[in-house]
Write a structure and sequence with these properties.
The complex is a heterodimer of chains A (258) and B (207). Chain A is 56% helix and 12% strand. The two termini of chain A are 13 Å apart. A six-stranded parallel beta sheet of chain A has the order 3-2-1-4-5-6, with helices on both faces. Chain A has helices spanning 7-28, 40-55, 71-89, 104-117, 136-150, 165-174, 189-195, 208-213, 216-245, 251-256, and strands spanning 59-64, 94-98, 129-131, 154-160, 178-183, 198-201. With 258 residues, chain A is α/β, with parallel strands linked by helices. Chain A folds into two domains: 40-212, 3-Layer(aba) Sandwich (Rossmann fold); 215-258. Chain B starts with a helix and ends in a 12-residue tail after the last helix. Chain B has helices at residues 4-22, 26-63, 69-89, 95-114, 116-127, 133-148, 151-156, 160-195. In chain B, helix 1 packs across helix 2 (26-63). Classes of the chains: A alpha/beta (258), B mainly alpha (207). At the A-B interface, helix 1, helix 3, helix 4, helix 5 and helix 6 of A face helix 1, helix 2, helix 4, helix 5 and helix 8 of B.
Chain lengths: 258, 207
């Protein structure tokens, strides 16, 4: 019945879903939920947008180059919703650049809705959301060109990024933009750390929707996420201890690989 | 219903794909394959949307003679050249189409990619300035790594390559796995929020 090696995965998924749904139910019932850690990079979004507003320059937002099957892209939409609403509220120009054709209409709708929700649809420009190219480096080149021409004061890069990450981030640094970047692609994180003012590492980008909206239901989800992380850390520590004390014992690995 | 419909559909489709990964039954496999086909078809259609946007954007730029409008002409000419040429000759396997692609897009992509070398240099210069304790650790480990992987490193000290291997295999791998673990859980939590309909950013900016 179970697919090969999926028994342990199934039960861990069930436990995780139960924890998430429990926390959501607690939040909806108005019960107290534990606090979550501050995410400095997400707190800095207001600072970045404020700086762009004061300087009268645009905000550049990239949802990365991942497609809709990439959870990072989906997480980025929530941050874009927040950034677009703030830009609409303060009449700051936002430029959203896209590499994936299927992501483009969604980002366009998000930005348009942001202007609708702020009651400023007349200020919405169709040039705000652009599709450049589905070629990775053609997209990167187009972003670099746009950044040199428009000189955005804030550069927000949240989503799945690959080798183009440093090309875009370094140009952002050269033009003096305040930069907030985040990705779960581990090989690109050092580039963002080196080139950007604020960097969201790994799971922090998935926390964006809950953290920015401050919605208690979504915050409950974050708490469950932290619990799951702590549980897995304990499993890793137990595994390391077993491997150190008894190098031949592999019952934990066998159990988890079932 | 305008909002609920997509949420319900996403929940059903998402659960079907997850369950098909956990349980091995022919019926679930058929459902998953069918949903994969739908995704491919939808994605292919979206290319057309992107094409129309690109076209409108650059035609407007040319007609209004905005700064750099000449580049827009080059872009549109290149785009339509490949579309028409591809439709006439067939893009896959055609020698002339292949030559046109390999002689233009490939070297231009490689050129942009090669810029990374200079960007890595300038980004490293800023990152490795030992202003804080963390930056000093970063600088020291980077220096050990850089010297340890080149032949002169072994000449300076024979144990240096072993230290670089240790940094890569233990602290580096542990850090990467920790981040990946957190990212996987974050991805699962995001998927779950979408499946139960409490995160709707993908529907066009609704929470």
């Amino acid at each position: 019945m179970f697919a090969k090696d999926m028994v342990a995965t199934f039960w861990m998924d069930v436990l995780f879903c139960a924890a998430v749904l429990t926390m959501i139910a607690r939040s909806r019932a108005g019960k107290r939920i534990p606090a979550v850690n501050k995410v400095v990079g997400l707190d800095a979004l207001d600072e970045a947008i404020g700086r762009a507003t004061e300087m009268g320059r645009p905000v550049h937002y990239s949802p990365g180059i991942g497609d809709l099957q990439n959870a990072q892209t989906l997480a980025s939409f929530s941050a874009l919703t927040y950034v677009a609403r703030k830009c609409a509220k303060f009449d700051t120009t936002i430029i959203v650049t896209n590499r994936i054709p299927s992501v483009y209409p969604i980002t366009e709708e998000i930005v348009r809705q942001a202007y609708v929700q702020e009651g400023k649809l007349d200020r919405y420009s169709e040039d705000s959301v652009v599709f450049y190219s589905s070629e990775q480096f053609a997209y990167a080149s187009a972003c670099v060109g746009m950044m040199n021409r428009e000189r955005p004061a804030a550069n927000v890069l949240l989503g799945g990024f690959w080798a183009e990450s440093l090309v875009i981030a370094e140009v952002g640094s050269q033009i003096g933009a305040i930069q907030i970047a985040g990705t779960a692609n581990t090989h690109q994180i050092p580039f963002f750390v080196a080139a950007c003012d604020y960097c969201l590492i790994g799971e922090e980008i998935y926390a964006a929707s809950a953290y920015l909206s401050k919605d208690p239901v979504l915050m409950g989800n974050l708490v469950a996420q932290d619990w799951a992380k702590m549980t897995l850390t304990v499993i890793v520590l137990v595994g390391a201890l077993i491997a150190t004390v008894s190098p031949g014992a592999n019952w934990l690995a066998t159990l988890l690989n079932r | 219903m305008r909002r609920e419909g997509p949420v319900i559909f996403a929940a059903i489709a998402g659960l079907a794909v997850i369950i098909s990964g956990l349980f091995a039954t022919d019926a679930l496999k058929v459902v998953k394959d069918e949903l994969d086909q739908w995704y491919l078809i939808t994605t292919a259609f979206m290319v057309l949307v992107g094409l129309i946007n690109l076209n409108l954007l650059h035609v407007r730029k040319i007609s209004q003679k905005k700064e750099g409008w000449g580049y827009s002409i080059v872009l549109l000419a290149g785009m339509y050249f490949f579309i028409v040429f591809g439709l006439m000759r067939g893009s896959l396997g055609d020698a002339q189409y292949g030559w046109a692609y390999n002689a233009t897009i490939v070297p231009m992509s490689a050129t942009t990619f090669s810029l990374l070398m200079f960007y890595i240099g300038s980004a490293s210069y800023r990152a490795f300035r030992a202003r804080t304790a963390e930056a000093t650790v970063l600088l020291l480990s980077a220096v050990v790594m850089m010297i340890g992987v080149v032949p002169i490193g072994r000449v300076i000290w024979s144990r240096l390559p072993d230290i670089t291997s240790w940094i890569l295999d233990y602290p580096n791998t542990a850090g990467i796995r920790g981040i990946q673990l957190g990212a996987c859980i974050g991805g699962m939590a995001t998927a779950l929020r979408i499946l139960v309909g409490i995160e709707r950013g993908h529907l066009g900016g609704e929470g």
